[in-house]
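Observation: inputs received (chain + S-adenosylmethionine).
Thought: call the complex predictor directly.
Action: predict_structure
Action Input:
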Amino acid sequence: MKRIGQISSQASASLKAQLTPLSCSTFPNFETAMEFGCDFVLLAEGNRLRLANSELGEKAALEIDFFEGSLRHRRHFGGGRNQDLAKAVGLNRNPKISILDATAGLGRDSFVMALIGATLKANEKNEVLVTLLQWAHLSALEKAQADQDRELVEVLERMRFRHRDTALDHESDQFDVVYLDPMFPERQKTAKVKKEMQILHQLLCEDQADEESLFAVCIAAARSRLVIKRPLRAPAFADRSPQHQVRGKTVRYDLYVKQALPE
Ligand SMILES: C[S@@+](CC[C@H](N)C(=O)[O-])C[C@H]1O[C@@H](n2cnc3c(N)ncnc32)[C@H](O)[C@@H]1O
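Observation:
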């Protein structure tokens, strides 16, 4: 069981409520949280929320940001409809489809798909990650509204992050496409794993994907197709052979097609 603490006295009033569902103790500073044996600390300051772990310390904290950083770059210079993800999901043909992102993670793929035009619900079962996602979503929305950035407001309004275990909670709705990116690749000793990946690995290391039930729920929730992201040479998910593949340099997308996408 991981021990999570929070430091939130400096948090923006409009965002602080996002921390309420989390059952974690509040500390005045990082050092005190360490003395009380926390493995992770959520650092809320102004409109930023970061996650630090005890090993790497406060400076190496992980943050999800839909307004600045790499996703801002992606917004202005990203590959749009021609990237492999867009082709696999079918956004190159119809950008306005509905998508269930069954494993939200850091929300990057969700953001890219919503950016192209999809309306999307994204499930994340880890409660700390959901808090980071929902905070980042609301914070970016507030900034985009203040900047009168209509385009970004619309992108963010097409996305919704939910605290949900996709394998356990059967979806009452169907989606044109279900997208599944189940596991961060195994940590390799030789590779220089980025610090944020180290934090994520530590946060999620006790999780084992139940491939059978995830596959069953996802294929049932998909009207047109299920798309599963895999490391390039990994075996097929849940031992199910896909009908099609979109292959990139390091990852591939396996496609399980039920019917054509809506026009
Ligand atoms: C590889 S990450 C997804 C990365 C994501 N595609 C992105 O762009 O940031 C996998 C995520 O799925 C979550 N996850 C795994 N099984 C899940 C399930 N059954 N329901 C919801 N989320 C799940 C994990 O907690 C983890 O955060």
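Thought: report the result.
Final Answer: Residues 4-63 form a domain with the S-adenosyl-L-methionine-dependent methyltransferases fold (CATH 3.40.1630.10). The first helix runs from residue 13 to 16.
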